[in-house]
Amino acid sequence: MDSTTPEALAGMRETASPATLPADTLKADILWHVLYSLGRDNERPDRQTVFRALALALRDRLVEKWIASQRAIYAKSSKRVYYLSLEFLPGPFLRQNLIALGLEKEARDALTELGFTLDDVAGEEWEPGLGNGGLGRLASCYLDSMAALRLPAYGYGIRYAFGIFHQLIRDGQQVERADNWLRGGQHWEFERTHYMHPVRFYGSVREWVDEQGRLRHTLEGGSTVMAMACDMFIPGYRNDYVLNMRLWAAKSSREFEFSFFNTGDYIGAVEKKIRDENISMVLYPNDEAPEGKELRLKQQFFLVSATMQDIVRRFRKKGVAWDQFPRKNVIHLNETHPAVAIPELMRLLVDEELLPWEEAWYICVRTFAYTNHTVLPEALEVWPEELFRKVLPRHLQIIYEINRRFLHDVRRQFPHDPGLLARVSLIHEGEQRFVRMSHLAIVGSFSVNGVSAHHSNIIKESIFNEFYKIFPERFNNKTNGITPRRWLRQCNPTLAWLITEHIGTEWLTDLEQLKKLEPYAESAGFQKAWMEVRLRNKQKLAEYIHAKNGITILPESLYDVHVKRFHEYKRQLLNILHVITLYNRIRRDPDAGIVPRTFIFGGKAAPGYYMAKHIIQLINAVGYTINTDPRVGDMLKVVFLQNYCVTLAERIMPATDLSEQISTAGMEASGTGNMKFALNGAITIGTHDGANIEMLEHVGDENLFLFGLLSHEVEDLRRQGYNPRTFYETDSELREVLDMISGGYFSPGDPHMFRDIVESLLNHGDRYMVLADFRSYAYRQQDAARAYLDQPGWARRSMLNTARMGFFSSDRSMGEYARDIWGVEGV
Ligand code: OX2
User: Fold this and answer.
1) How far is the CA of 381 from the centre of ligand 1 (A)?
2) Averaged confidence pLDDT in the chain
3) How far is CA 739 from CA 581, 756, 763, in A?
């Protein structure tokens, strides 16, 4: 057998240990599940049925290991980590689970005997899109690494019935369709129908004095919804350790239904049920722009309340005093979305456990840790006080008390800065009052971290500078990472195998081992093999594009890829301005010697984000014009791939030459797509932003194309009064491009179609400094093209990118969190 094939790769089972259920019964198990779990004829099962049965057979193996892992955590009485996130973006599970369990080869064999291929069967899986983008995907990479490191950890989130919408492109525009990911059945999870926690909203607070003369608070009235646990398993890589991602689904409370039924209001009872279960119905599709809707606040508290009940239940089993709580538990807040956990723990301790406030607070601030993921002002979460009072009246009182005591301390520490109190207050005062969730999270946590060195510095120096002065010891950095199991081993099996052939398999759990590839960077033979693998990956993507978009692209062309959420700060617009520039150069001189390029775009825009959607439309319009212009031929192609998601990312990463990471400096907290591309051997063109800066330090500046303003230059320019028009007036190529867009060149049927975009640049201040960075971007793109012409040079750069990405493993990130923040070790 050809040793470079994925099949051969699947054959390596270097550290595999026997499952309790033997591997060689996989086929029999599949057939068993076809008949007994799915109720289908197992003589000729169809592909979907086989997929589901295989998933169930794997779940059997996962659950055994999960029970064993839970017992081990319990036996060691370990401190537990609770990772709370409103979003998880796990991607398809099948291949990942097969790899972790060491069962890829067995699965291929079993499926072959049943007349299927693994590729076909894996294609049947619909990924759970329970996140918007980077934040949710990071949470999933982290769970994978927590499992790899055998950490005593749990992921907690919401099982939305509808995840992030499915994106279609119709007439060049984004159209949203509901993502009914559960319609195919729930083969990976266990629904704990017997296992529910009540969650209470609304109502009013009654104050009373008990026999001991204590002031007590009791919530009266309100409405109760049940949270049902749904467990999904996250296996560690070949280590027999399995973690649990517990997602809560809303169920109507029985008592209520019965009381309605008894009074004969049947339809009323059903309506109530539907209203209650709406809580976990849909993920809000806004990335970095909180929606501020009541239902969203209810989702947040729903997750928090149910999870806290779980945590307290487990803690109580230990039978130790409450002051031991922080020694036994750490609760990590992924962004501020679950920050109402802080007042919720206070409520439990003060109102229910009757601890004195000071003691309760002491426990609280030793339990919580908070990760900030953004500095965009519009993304910092705030809630109108009125809404908060309506939904969570007791929690608002508690937040006020936290704030009163906090401001009292600040006043003592900084007596000569009266304005400071208003700036750090948990409440924004003004015509309307708002609860500032980031302030709550900082005041209530012992650790506050950013997600790249650059971002963590910005936090300390600007947005949270005053908190940094108050609590300097709380602030720290934990640079993001990605899991090499999914983002190299799984998505790029042939490259993974080539690497393994040369340096062994240790890189899978110790990514720094990739350094051992460096000596091969000069070897002509290895370069050739490397580029062959890459070309094959590019051919596969070309086939996919042909099938999906009907566009023929040259696999030898430079694949220049920009995939991520659409947001103005991510500057897909800057990219398309450059595309048009190249187009104009070709129009002027078809023999200009332009390096053939394929521009690939993908990403979703929030349904209500007008400008982002408009930019998607512009890209598609430009693509149509260029792809159908006979003067251009194979020199330039523009492709928009619809419905960017984890599954699609897995196809794209291995086939990319140039990775676009071009946010306005200071705006992208970290980025993680940047890491996935580079790990697969793409070269980055990017700004001095987020983790790009650390990537530069690791891969070296010959191997990465940096350009554009630095963060402080962006700020200086803004302060001095940035005038985008000067760039328009002085740069004739840029002017031509903008005139074409506003003049209807790409929208002949409706010449005004894209005027707003040009307006935003020229007459509305160009907030994201697209024009200021245009020329340096265009120059750097020329460098990239020139570098691509030297294929051996490109191969060397590509390999060095992969070889030097070890630092960006999520195993490293999780190791740092475990050691520096959580104080836990592997079980
Ligand atoms: C994203 C950030 O925009 C991105 O830079 C980062 O890599 C990712 O989180 C993971 O840390 N919502 N999404 C993000 O921040 C918020 C808020």
Assistant:
1) 14
2) 95
3) 12, 12, 14
CATH superfamily assigned to domain 79-87+127-159+185-480+814-822: Glycogen Phosphorylase B; (3.40.50.2000)
Is pLDDT at 265 greater than 90 in this prediction? no
Q: What tokens were used for 184? A: 């195919």
Predicted confidence at residue 255, as pLDDT, reads 60
The gap from C-alpha 717 to its chain's centroid, in whole angstroms, comes to: 32
Tell me the C-alpha distance between 673 and 649, whole Å.
9
Closest by alpha carbon to 123, among 47, 44, 11? 47
Q: Which of 436, 565, 797, 804 is catalytic?
A: 565
The superfamily CATH assigns to domain 556-806 is Glycogen Phosphorylase B; (3.40.50.2000)
Treating both helix axes as pointing N-terminal to C-terminal, what angle do 572-588 and 610-627 enclose, rounded to 10 degrees?
A: 20
Looking at residues 175-187, what average pLDDT do you find?
Answer: 92
Residue 13 clears pLDDT 50, i.e. is over it: no
Query: What pLDDT, on the 0 to 100 scale, is given for residue 330?
Result: 98
Quick one: which atom of ligand 1 is closest to the CA of 335?
17
Do the domains 79-87+127-159+185-480+814-822 and 556-806 sit in the same CATH topology, yes or no? yes
Q: Which residue has the tokens 């290895």?
A: 526
Q: Is 373 a catalytic residue?
A: yes
| 390 in active site | no
Distance of alpha carbon 153 from alpha carbon 166, whole angstroms: 31
ipTM, two decimals: 0.99
Shortest CA distance to 736 belongs to which of 752, 712, 758? 758
Q: Are residues 323 and 355 in contact, defined by beta-carbon separation less than 8 angstroms?
A: no
* Residue 259: per-residue pLDDT: 67
Over residues 460-465, the mean pLDDT reads 97
The Cβ of residue 40 has, within 10 Å, a number of other Cβ atoms equal to 18
Q: How does pLDDT run across 536-573, given as a tens digit for each residue?
A: 999 999 999 999 999 999 999 999 999 999 999 999 99
Rg (CA), the chain: 27
Atom of ligand 1 nearest to the CA of 455: 5
For 172, residues 6+ apart whose C-beta sits below 8 A from its C-beta are: 616, 617, 620, 621, 624
79 is catalytic: no
Nearest Cα neighbor of 694 from 813, 799, 601, 783 is 813
